Amino acid sequence: AADNGLSAWVRYAPLANSHHFHYAIPSKIVALNTTETSPVYTAGQELQDGLQGIFGKQVTVEHAKCPAASSVVIGTVDEYTKVYGKLQNSPELVEDGFWLSTKGSEVQILGQNERAALYGAFEYLSMLAQGNFSQVAYASNPSAPIRWINQWDNMDGSIERGYGGQSIFFSNGTIVQNLTRATEYARLLASVGINGIIVNNVNANSSLLNETNIIGLGRIADAMRPYGVRIGISLDFASPMEYGLPTFDPLDPSVIEWWTNKTEALYQQVPDMAGYLVKADSEGQPGPLTYNRTLAQGGNLFAKALQPYGGIVMFRAFVYNQLNESDWRADRANAAVDFFKPLDGEFDDNVVVQIKYGPIDFQVREPTSPLFANLHKTSTAIELEITQEYLGQQCHLVYLPPLWKTVLDFDLRVDNKSSIVRNIISGQRFNRPLGGSAGVANVGTNTTWLGSILSQSNLYAYGRLAWQPAQDPESILQDWIRLTFGLDTNVLNAITQMSMESWPAYENYSGNLGIQTLTDILYTHYGPNPQSQDGNGWGQWTRADHLTIGMDRTVTNGTGFSGQYPPEVASMYEDIATTPDNLLLWFHHVNYTHPLHSGETVIQHFYNAHYSGALTAQTFLQLWQTLKGKIDPERYEEVLFRLTYQAGHSIVWRDAITNFYNNLSGIPDEAQRVGHH
Length: 677
Ligand code: GCW
Prior knowledge:
Elements: E1 28-31, H1 39-55, E2 60-62, E3 71-76, H2 77-84, E4 98-101, E5 107-111, H3 114-129, E6 137-140, E7 146-150, E8 170-171, E9 174-175, H4 180-191, E10 196-198, H5 211-224, E11 230-235, H6 239-242, H7 253-269, E12 275-278, H8 295-306, E13 312-316, H9 335-340, E14 351-356, H10 371-374, E15 379-385, H11 401-408, H12 421-425, E16 436-440, H13 456-467, H14 473-485, H15 489-509, E17 548-549, H16 567-574, H17 584-587, E18 590-591, H18 602-625, H19 633-665
Parallel strand pairs: 1-2, 1-3, 3-5, 7-10, 7-16, 10-11, 11-12, 12-13, 13-14, 14-15, 15-16
Antiparallel strand pairs: 4-5, 4-6, 8-9, 17-18
Helix pairs in contact: 1-3, 7-8, 13-14, 14-15, 15-18, 18-19
Bound molecules: 4-O-methyl-beta-D-glucopyranuronic acid.
4-O-methyl-beta-D-glucopyranuronic acid binds at residues 152, 160-161, 202-203, 279, 283, 318, 361-362.
């Protein structure tokens, strides 16, 4: 692929000779693909491009049996066995898993299926591109079968909460003619093991289901299939009515028939369609509650239509109502468990409940959604947001995996037993057949895909963590840096430092102690607007007045939210003494003078954190400036521009938030930085 920026971290940039002069570069590639559109065929091409790019060596690709010595052999385990006979040590592979061996006279890359072999090829090329020639032989298996992307693309080509330009899939109500970008996107996704993508917004439009657009979906699927990425779509629950039926009641036979026929028509164009994503009875979207049917009845309507084709329904748990703030016990955070816990066991087996990481909405810090602990007979997936909706919208550097890990690694202690979220979504903890993750990416036509170069680390790391969530965010980051910017250690160290410090810094200069992000929640979700949290029905309240702040979510005296966790976790959050400082104001309503475990008061922590967070953001710019000349001018300038902006905007944040709480509380800053003195 030409290096026009679109290849992101799959660049195959040339390695300096000194890095590889001891490496015996394979002399040919043997790709045991079954067809020319199969991922193994693609893998053969990638290996060829990769060896050419990285080492400058031209290598041929053979597709038939030929001597394997000194070559790279790629295919499924089954094909390999047919052609070369049984493997010495048959690797234990689950679906999408691969075997990679660089020991011995041939490099073996063998997948449990064709897409898995492609994953193995990308892993091998990633090693080479990083100058890693170690002798390895291992099986790599994904932690969970569902490793999907969600795109919030609208049919008119706009993208809800997208910061990287217009849709690569849609414009003017239909599917775009040229789908080259869809193929290039699939390439990036496959390089990190992502196997599915929902191409349109969860706030869906039924016009996607007209005849022309169904044919268009077939073209999108064709464009992504060579990379093993299956497509799925979001549905508008009321579609039958928009196409002329008098009802969209999920139990009405005519509605069932309508969805059965639509599903059949879709599978005619997209025989390997992954499934449906459904946002129902949420934020004005239609759903089964209109007809007094349960959310499970709504989900199962689609599950039954998809079942004959092996498709699955991702049913979103993001269901809540507007609330009245004058009710001390009202709490939007309670909604998901209130709606879904009673339905545990009522969803068909091919339904997966897709749960945002926290109980509210992608805030800078939230406790783990307690719904993960409350569904034992239902498959679940975690929903993460790669697009930085509340986290600076790609204008701020925020490396998100450390935030995601606070949830993925959280132990919910169901039945007083280890119940780590990553082991729940893998299906392991409750013995579920399905599970995994969905990442809202919202890439667009921008040449950086997401809107900024540094934010690509979030997309890369999302895929790596979906594959294996126990991995370390910093080592994933460093792979990304080497693949994106090369092997210079100054570059590696500077970008590592600023990225690893970026989420803590953003939390420091935005919302602290679990109060939520304090960004504008009414319109833009951008920039400081602490007053927008309260006085409306959205339920993202801080309950701040001139003496006190925080939501009392205890069972004893508050909304009862802490009681939605299993006992060990519930008692930790119920008691102010055992609640971690970083979630204090999520769970408790306290005086500004309340002392934290750290010894600071709440208000002084707000002041200090904001000054230190904004100071840290200034250092990102300085660190970057040390890299001048070590990075090509185009990318150097793009990042410089954004980090300069972030350094300034972090000060806007600092001053807006500290002044707001200084005015409200009247409590001076001990260091005399805030307000008039
Ligand atoms: O956070 C909110 C976003 C909406 C989004 C919604 C959801 C797609 O602001 O833009 O709608 O969440 O996740 O459904």
